[in-house]
Known about the structure:
By secondary structure, the protein is α/β, with parallel strands linked by helices. The chain has 2 domains: 5-176, Thiolase/Chalcone synthase (Peroxisomal Thiolase, Chain A, domain 1), CATH 3.40.47; 180-326, 3-Layer(aba) Sandwich (Peroxisomal Thiolase, Chain A, domain 1). Helices cover 32% and strands 24% of the residues. The chain has helices spanning 22-28, 33-40, 55-70, 94-102, 118-131, 207-211, 221-242, 260-270, 281-284, 291-299; strands at residues 5-14, 18-21, 44-47, 79-83, 108-112, 138-145, 163-173, 178-186, 194-195, 218-219, 252-255, 308-315, 319-326. The structure holds oxa(dethia)-CoA (UT7). Oxa(dethia)-CoA binds next to helix 2, helix 7 and strand 12.
Amino acid sequence: xxxxxxxxxxxxxxxxxxxxxxxxxxxxxxxxxxxxxxxxxxxxxxxxxxxxxxxxxxxxxxxxxxxxxxxxxxxxxxxxxxxxxxxxxxxxxxxxxxxxxxxxxxxxxxxxxxxxxxxxxxxxxxxxxxxxxxxxxxxxxxxxxxxxxxxxxxxxxxxxxxxxxxxxxxxxxxxxxxxxxxxxxxxxxxxxxxxxxxxxxxxxxxxxxxxxxxxxxxxxxxxxxxxxxxxxxxxxxxxxxxxxxxxxxxxxxxxxxxxxxxxxxxxxxxxxxxxxxxxxxxxxxxxxxxxxxxxxxxxxxxxxxxxxxxxxxxxxxxxxxxxxxxxxxxxxx
Length: 333
Ligand code: UT7
């Protein structure tokens, strides 16, 4: 019997209209465009504005776009996974809400929490469902409405994050393309450096947690930076090595967009020239689980059948890793 692999066969994305520029941030907090650009690479981020709008409202258009491009109906989806740390509600899962909004009436689904590595963790999970032979159409969405948990008086975090959603469709292939290998890691001892302390079972919401701003994202920037540079670069390098590949074999690096300096370090460690690196941090900032699928969405037309690409991420948890994908299709331009 031929081995089944999980091929990415369509991509969709969504970013909100509103642009929060560095110039606007300069009017809100003690910062400046030059500092933000040189330390992070971010120039503007998109923010989901409007009463009653949540993460599912960004997932839905991304998944509908993917269905339209592939020529399928939402009721053909077997399973939908949403990687997010900003679900619409603690429960039910945002995946259920998305399925309801788009009419994916035959799908089951669940949310996956792995912060900035969420899309990679979801991609590996979704691929396993396809490889089992039991499911034919699995959608993996990476989506976050980071503006819901950012403290816009904290200059060390509010300059970094934005909102967005990206999604891929996985289908069985017997050509050997698709998700080839994943090297994923997690280390819970990193929990103190990047987190949202309250709102879970450890610290349910109270007046104290609200006043202490414990429903906002907290990041010890330098500690996370150091761990991210090593974690992301090592994972990408080790993945290449165990697949007997070098940077020359790789068409694109698709990195999590947290900081341009972390991305540059990863590309250097892989021996990859910087024109092979997808970079949109300047326009969207760090959209957490959405960064990698948003890159695939934007670069889709430049990807060709047979291209080997490496996706790499590092985030809260700590979670990190790298995934090797052989691209499965050419897009008619
Ligand atoms: O996606 C999840 C994983 N997250 C990451 O990978 C992020 C990792 N961390 C980083 O990207 C960086 O640590 C940051 C971008 C968050 C911060 O950059 P940094 O080069 O590590 O800056 P720093 O925290 O060492 O701060 C340097 C200085 C400080 O001033 P002093 O103490 O030297 O006087 C900060 O107070 O920059 C100051 N500063 C700012 N200045 C202007 C901090 N934030 C700002 C700001 N504008 N927004």
